[in-house]
Amino acid sequence: MNFVELPKIELHCHLDGSLRSETIIDIAKREDINIPSYNIEEIQREITAPLECESLDEYLEKFAIPNLVMQSKESLRRISFELFEDAAKENVKYMEVRFAPLLHTQRGLDVEEIIQSVLDGMKKAENKYDIKGNIILSCMRTMSVESAFDVVERGAKFLGKGVVAIDLCASEEEGFCEKFIEPIKLAKEYGYRVTIHAGETGIGKNVLEAIELLGAERIGHGVFIKDCDEAYRIVRKQQVVLEMCPTSNVQTKAVNNYHEHPIYHFHKDGIKVTINTDNRTVSATNMANECNIVFKEFNISFEDYKQIYLNSVEACFADLETKTMLKKYMHRK
Question: What would the pLDDT profile of 101-115 be if each residue is shown by its tens digit?
């Protein structure tokens, strides 16, 4: 299968993990930001995680340099535009990009300016390319509950204008869901959809709690439901969609290698899975590459791919008009 030519949908992609190396260098020079090198190969090495990462925490260290150059409206607009541009060029027809606004306040921007800048970049790409997008606001689990309320409150004015959902991300500790029940409850009252990073680092029970306590409609990763029968059952029964990211999961040691990844077993057992990059730069990947990995390791058929694509259409947080359009791309095949 030629995955470059096939239509694709991506539901789990982090803005700050998907910068072009040359853009990092260019912004650093323009804005007088100190970075370790101005050599593209060296920066590439600094911001790309090896397949032999020790853990999720080591993987997350690769976001430090990108965040240095994501502190102005111009840079946020540019980085957002370029991510959607890159995705459009590999036939991604719809993409949900997530980012944590509070990581971009270091040089005085407020949350509203940050969100608007990312939306502006996305809309510029939508006008230029055959791609549609939406934005997911991430709250950092390493920050306070008050900070999550802050993101929920200040992002609410952008609902219906490109912001669609709320997310919890960063290092995963057991039982994190309980701490964030109230801000996520408020988010749902405002009209945010809910996707939660859970079950990425050996704690399947976190997936169960993300669904039961936070009302998660989708789960970022969810690999470790394989070790938690109750979480597995509820994901399958309630058809909670898993946003799976094969390369990232090998890097963070959620799985030892691609062949051990549970994505195909889950798919065949009636769990709704989707294929995603997580972070295009940090994982040195794109959607065609992730699809090729799944094809190579599990010999998926075109019917399998079509089902995964349609799972993504149903699970995306887009409006009905966009979903109808996305289905048509696959039916032309």
Answer: 999 999 999 999 999
Residue 3 lies in a domain: no
Residue numbering of the annotated binding site for substrate: 14, 16
Is there a domain that residue 1 lies in? no
For Cα atoms 248, 197, 299, give the angle at the middle one, nearest 5 degrees.
45
Reported as a single tens digit per residue, the pLDDT across 154-174 is: 999 999 999 999 999 999 999
The set of catalytic residues is 200
Point out the annotated binding site for Zn(2+).
Answer: 12, 14, 197, 278
Residue 43 to residues 28, 57, 102, 208, 282, Cα–Cα distance (Å): 12, 20, 24, 39, 11
CA distance to 203, 207, 270, 284, per residue, from 229 (Å): 12, 11, 15, 33
Distance CA 229, CA 242 (A): 16
What total of structural domains would you count in the chain?
1
Cα distance between residue 258 and residue 182, in whole Å: 37
